[in-house]
Specification:
Layout lengths: L4 H14 L15 H10 L10 H19 L3 H15 L1 E6 L7 E5 L5 H18 L6 E3 L8 E3 L17 H16 L1
Antiparallel strand pairs: 1-2, 3-4
Helix pairs in contact: 1-5, 3-4, 3-5, 4-5
The protein binds zinc ion (2 copies).
Length: 186
């Protein structure tokens, strides 16, 4: 499937958003305060976002939870229902833009949308296109033990099982190999 620059950005943003959620009671929330949210908005170059408040923070956390459910969905129908709710609640105003030197692409968030609605509309539509293309299964959760991070599998044969952070995937095997060698070397 064709993945344009802006879709790619929206995917990166939604994956990072879902992965800011604390995994359990002992890990910190990646969006612990308004400053963390401001940092998130800046690092993902979200356009047209104004001053942020506690209200924005709690709204974004709610949207984050719903996106997490999309990645955890067992089938396309469940994912579609969740995405429909997210996008409908956000309200959308599709419009063409070529801001900041990017090629023409469509923004979905309504003018003046809150940051939560902005995320729900644009990231929701990016995920919607995966469902439309029959590619929903590319929206994954890492299979490494103790890691349930979200990621989008953009490999040709949809074969990725692990996220690319921490000790997942190949690094799991490398770590096991090194541990064995160390033990053998005594
Ligand atoms: Zn844009
Ligand atoms: Zn992982």
């Amino acid at each position: 499937m064709l993945i344009t620059h802006d879709t790619r950005c929206a995917l990166d943003t939604v994956v990072d958003l879902v992965n800011t959620a604390p995994e359990d009671d002992t890990t910190p929330d990646g969006l612990a305060d308004v400053a963390a949210l401001e940092n998130f908005v800046r690092s993902h170059e979200m356009s047209d976002v104004g001053a942020l408040s506690e209200f924005d923070l709690s709204a974004v956390r709610q949207v984050r939870e719903r996106f997490a459910a999309v990645f955890a969905a067992d089938d396309a129908r469940t994912a579609a229902g969740l995405i429909n709710e997210l996008v409908a609640a956000a309200g959308t105003t599709p419009r063409l833009t070529d801001h900041d030197g990017y090629d023409w692409h469509v923004h979905y968030f309504a003018p003046g949308a809150s940051v939560a609605d902005h995320l729900a509309a644009d990231c929701g539509m990016a995920l919607a296109f995966f469902v439309v293309a029959g590619e929903r299964e590319r929206l994954r959760r890492c299979e490494a033990p103790d890691c349930r991070r979200a990621f989008v599998d953009l490999s040709r044969n949809r074969s990725r099982r692990y996220c690319d952070s921490r000790t997942c995937g190949n690094r799991l095997h490398v770590a096991a190999y090194r541990a064995r060698r160390k033990e053998a070397a005594g």
